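Schema walkthrough. Field components (list of strings):
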Amino acid sequence: MKLRAKFTTAISFYIQTTEYVSGQGVTKTWTKFESELSDGSKMSVFFCEWTGSFGEIKFAAQAQGVSDSARVRMPFIPELYAELKSQKVLIAKNADTNVIDDNAPDAANANAYRVWGSVDNIREENIMMEFNVQRYEVQ
Amino acid sequence: MATTLLNLVKSRLGIFYSDTAKDAEISQMISGATAFLKNAGVPDEALTTGAELPEAIEAIIIYCKMAMITDAEEMKLNPVLTALIAQMRIVEDEDEET
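Field assembly_structure (string):
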């Protein structure tokens, strides 16, 4: 089966990390995900195929109270895959740098999304991964 | 092998991370592509490490993309690869008319 994808939409990722500070309790911070390349440089803006939900998928999403969702396909990045599987990740569509407001996701920002469900390493080939996203809204 | 060529090829193959095993795999593919092009008659100058011709880089990328396909049916020689080899084999002879 052929798998075709056109990576045209820029996205970046923010990962929530928690840290215990003595006397203050647990603090939560959002850190931008960066992938290190072979030459030591770091990359934080990635390109993906962003397909908005329509038809049956849209109806199923709305039945669950999700009004804005999409399917994202992008090249496989092992570290990002692990983070998407295990951590709270904020997805910034169009690599919007304003999705974090006062150290918290900005629910009013139209480009703030989060993973809906889980991430799939397509056919376990380590070439492409796929996940669904939903708008980051206060629920 | 120049890191720049490795990075160029990796980015065109959609590999945006650094992993020793993956880098070794791609480097091996590039070595195979280079040997394939040389055996096909591409002059050594086109494949000078660190100063590869743009056509040579494109040919290496096409070869690597072909090498990544696991489906035997789809692993056919790409016509653009053949065209690039033909273009690189052309030798300019300025003294031809004199």
